[in-house]
Write a structure and sequence with these properties.
The chain is α/β, with parallel strands linked by helices. It has helices at 5-23, 54-63, 93-109, 120-127, 135-140, 146-164, 166-170, 174-184, 189-196, 201-207, 234-246, 267-270, 273-287, 354-364, 369-380, 391-394, and strands at residues 31-34, 37-39, 44-47, 79-82, 113-116, 212-215, 218-221, 291-294, 304-306, 311-313, 328-332, 335-340, 343-346. Strands 1-2-6-7-8-10-9 form a seven-stranded mixed sheet. A hairpin with a 4-residue loop joins strand 9 (304-306) and strand 10 (311-313). Helix 14 packs antiparallel against helix 15. The N and C termini lie far apart (65 Å).
Amino acid sequence: MSPYRPQFRLFNALITALALVAAIPVSGAPRELADQHWVGVDRVVAIGDLHGDYEHYLQVLRDAGLINGRNKWSGGETHLVQTGDITDRGPDSIAIIDHLEGLKKQARRKGGRVHTLIGNHEAMNSYGDLTYVDPGEFNHFVGRNSKSLQQRQWEFTLQQLEARDPEAFSAMDLEAYRTQWEEHYPLGWVEHRSAWMPSGEYGQWMLGNPVLLHINDTLFLHGGISSKYCHLSVQEMNSRAHSELENYNPAEPGMIEDELGPLWYRGLIYGDPESMDPVVNAILASYKAERIVVGHTPTGGVIWPLHDGRVVAIDTGIAAYYGGHAAFLELGPGGPRAGYGDERLELPSKDDERETYLRAVMALDPGNSKLKAQLRRLLESQEGPEPGADKEVASDAAFAGPENSAGEAPELSVDICL
């Protein structure tokens, strides 16, 4: 027998043991248990709707300590969650998306992650509802071929009009109609539409994002989870949303346009607290979570806890369009906190403790009339509409359409999610 064989055996046994140790997850180390389900994350920062405001977006990331002076990732192992609605209202959605994509790579190298969720406005851009697109968004796509592409779109429009009603078409003042038409189809429109289709660059980016994300004990999504869809797992909800967006059929829009769906639902904010509490409890139990964090419904400038902290609304109106109220939610070992500039405020865990918290936020933003209105409602009645759901802001009455729908789920038993 070779004199070296025992040493080889010992060496192989040592290598095997080390491999087994390396394969065992370190207790508490961040890891993805399943698709879009993370555990062991020490620090999570969540920010709400950005609506094309690049400067305020950068501001809130700096406030949270996630980027340095060169706008590069400095958040270490932090997980950043952006809950959707990067697009529309403002001109710089593409700049924000591109920057976030860069941060994803930088954060991963440091052990952190950046999660971008699908909001109703990303979905709208994908299936062609451009009602809220800022002109600056089209300008981003203008290039040397834009005039010829616009002309081809014009010719296609004329063909459709003539085929639909030849007699009416022959009587049209095409010069006047062209002026009107260009207001709706400016230079860059064709390229924008192409980029946001499911096969396009930003359509593909959107389809790479989840609708629902689970980190530690918290669910994150744009609008909310209603009793209609809470039976779906995280993976099932994301798969269904992606399928509907990729194969969009306006005759059968499905979950992605449903006011009770995860992109549009506002019942967690607007619903009567007493009747909604058992529903919230059932939803959380179904997903084995402790809280739900949502954007979509503007709060008037405050990170707002509801249902004794089990729901947190974080659409503070970061974009200038909604007042430029930069704030973020921070989840860590010390519990949930709200960040306002350099200030950190602990979120109250009981609804009857929110007055002190709201007054502290008002002291940081004394000129904010929306916060004053929220305090007034909070003091007037605990039975009325939730103070965090500022109807004047959230309904956005200047605009028509499904964005104004709160989405009231039917009353169901507490086993609704089974």
